[in-house]
Specification:
Keywords: Glycoprotein, Membrane, Transmembrane, Transmembrane helix. Helices cover about 65% and strands about 0% of the residues. By secondary structure, the chain is an all-alpha fold.
Length: about 290
């Protein structure tokens, strides 16, 4: 927002903080329960941040739409309308992510299991903080706007000061509640919403564009099916090491010079054996020859 009152920078920052709280809560709970912390878990905060910011945008957009339908003084009705619009989308998004990662805990790899446990639990906390902590922050931000307070300092600002410079008026003068209904309606609608409603939507509802979208999707679907047929099970261990690691030339040389012999097979004798007995040694040798 260009208005120093309607600007929601702190609201966006609190949305990021909400995702960070989810990460801290998840990591703390999993460490308290004794779940091993592996290196791959360090990537989980980026996933939580993406979903948390997405939920934040859904909540803010629903609040903006609700504020145009109902009286801005009725905060309970605004928040109820916001949750009725946003909670379904946020719930479905979180539910699918949580199911995907908790299903991943069935794997036989301990590192993947730990990663899925940490990330899936973080998604649950992200959902809880979005519907509780961030909802409360939205209400506090609404009260700040109704009080005609600056977005940065939260101090009351003037409505109109003609004797000040243009820069001062742009940064320190604003109003939220004293605008006319027409100007308020235009200001409350975000420019991105107007773009999708007036340009993006009509463009994609054109008959030729819809046909083109169907063709592009068919091509994408065909390419995806072909790609699935080319997928091979397994993992190349050299991709897990850094580019300058000694592991990469080791696997390159092993594949180049020793791959035709196959894997090495070792025989382990777990019982106590009289190796000094020549008969026993011949028996072991004969067993090795049979295995070969």
């Amino acid at each position: 927002r260009l208005s120093c009152v309607r600007n929601n920078v702190w609201l966006a920052c609190c949305g990021v903080v909400s995702a960070g709280l989810a990460v801290l809560s998840s990591f703390g709970l999993m460490l308290f329960c004794g779940v091993p912390f592996v290196v791959t878990v360090a990537n989980a905060p980026f996933l939580i941040l993406g979903v948390g910011v997405d939920d934040m945008f859904i909540m803010i957009a629903s609040w903006e739409q609700s504020s145009r339908k109902k009286k801005k003084s009725d905060v309970r009705a605004l928040l109820a309308e916001t949750y009725s619009e946003a909670a379904l989308s946020v719930t479905i998004t979180t539910l699918t992510d949580v199911l995907a990662f908790f299903i991943g805990t069935w794997t036989a790899f301990p590192s993947v299991r730990s990663f899925c446990l940490y990330t899936g639990t973080a998604f649950v906390f992200c959902y809880l903080y979005t519907l509780t902590f961030f909802g409360a922050v939205i209400v506090l931000n609404h009260k700040r706007e109704q009080g005609n307070r600056h977005w940065l300092t939260c101090m009351p600002v003037g409505v109109d000061e003609a004797d000040k410079s243009c820069l001062y008026n742009a940064c320190c003068v604003g109003s939220c509640s004293r605008q006319s209904s027409q100007l308020e309606e235009l200001d409350s609608e975000h420019p991105m919403s107007r773009f999708f409603k007036k340009y993006y939507g009509p463009f994609f509802t054109n008959t030729w564009i819809k046909a083109l979208v169907v063709l592009l999707y068919a091509a994408y679907l065909g390419g995806s099916i072909y790609g699935c047929t080319q997928v091979r099970e397994g993992i190349d261990l050299r991709n897990l090491a850094s580019d300058d690691s000694y592991v990469i030339p080791y696997y390159d040389d092993n594949e180049k010079y020793f791959s035709e012999y196959g894997p090495r097979v070792m025989v382990v004798i777990t019982e106590s054996v009289e190796y000094w007995n020549e008969t026993v040694r011949l028996g072991i040798e004969k067993c090795m020859q049979n295995l070969e």
